[in-house]
Amino acid sequence: MLWGRNCIHLMYYSGENMGNLFCCVQVDQSTVAIRERFGKFVDVLEPGCHCLPWFLGHQLAGHLSLRLQQLDVRCETKTKDNVFVNVVASIQYRALANKADDAFYKLTNTRSQIQAYVFDVIRASVPKLNLDAAFEQKNEIAKAVEDELEKAMSAYGYEIVQTLIVDIEPDVHVKRAMNEINAAARMRVATNEKAEAEKILQIKRAEGEAESKYLSGLGIARQRQAIVDGLRDSVLGFSVNVPGTTAKDVMDMVLVTQYFDTMKEIGAASKSSTVFIPHGPGAVRDVASQIRDGLLQGSYQ
Fold first, then answer.
1. Percent of the chain at pLDDT above 90?
2. Using an 8 Å Cβ cutoff, are 156 and 107 in contact?
3. Nearest-angstrom CA–CA distance, 88 and 147
4. Which residue blocks in the chain are alpha helix, DSSP H?
5. Where is pLDDT greater, at 228 or 55?
6. Where is pLDDT greater, at 95 or 280?
7. What is the average per-residue pLDDT within 82-95?
8. Residue 212 to residues 21, 207, 220, 231: CA-CA distances in angstroms?
9. How far apart are CA 43 and CA 55, in angstroms?
10. Cα 124 from Cα 126, distance rounded (Å)
11. Model pTM greater than 0.85?
């Protein structure tokens, strides 16, 4: 088994040495290679197989990926209303094939350079905004970062594809305070809505009671009108059928009848209250006189 592994490594190194021996190099897809001659840049090698006569001083200085790359940058800064926040930005960038030599030679650490520009723009933009405005203007902040990076990195052979502000994180105590403010505002709205609903309910209840009392008054008025009509018909009928009687005699008899009916109902009710009224024969005449005088006085007024 060990012999087999050694054979595989020997074949690999033999192939690589054979490639160097025949001055052939391979460049993978989405990658370019930088060719130098005696340490001086010559050209950029595209993907494929290339002849590299090492005995004439040609060599590969290195490879450069043309694939899209992403860098996440977390920057701490302060807003206009003195709230410290962490702004998280995602930068998508790639090297340009026609400027591969600039991208390879002009920058030692591309990611650090991009991060420095992101810090500079964010710390210049966010302090001009309040916390709420910073959340609302995330796209404007991302556009400012992208424009600044595009101007700076194009000179080094890099293209900024897209810049996103993916998150703005205030301190945990600030988050709690913001949630409490929002909860209080919603509670105030709910209280106002509840009070308005109770107001409408009371208005409707009052309107219903007024309508009920109005209809009850109409019913009582019609009841009394019916009683008056009935009494009038009774008096007229009794005066016609019994000659020599007057309207006063008929009314006294009706009132006495009503008096005894009332006493009967009070005595028949199981839960009635005790009522003390004059109950002698002479008292009936007094009751009739009082009722008659009250009716006549009300009619006169």
1. 23
2. yes
3. 17
4. 2-21, 100-105, 110-125, 131-136, 138-153, 172-241, 247-268, 281-300
5. 55
6. 95
7. 91
8. 113, 8, 12, 28
9. 18
10. 6
11. no
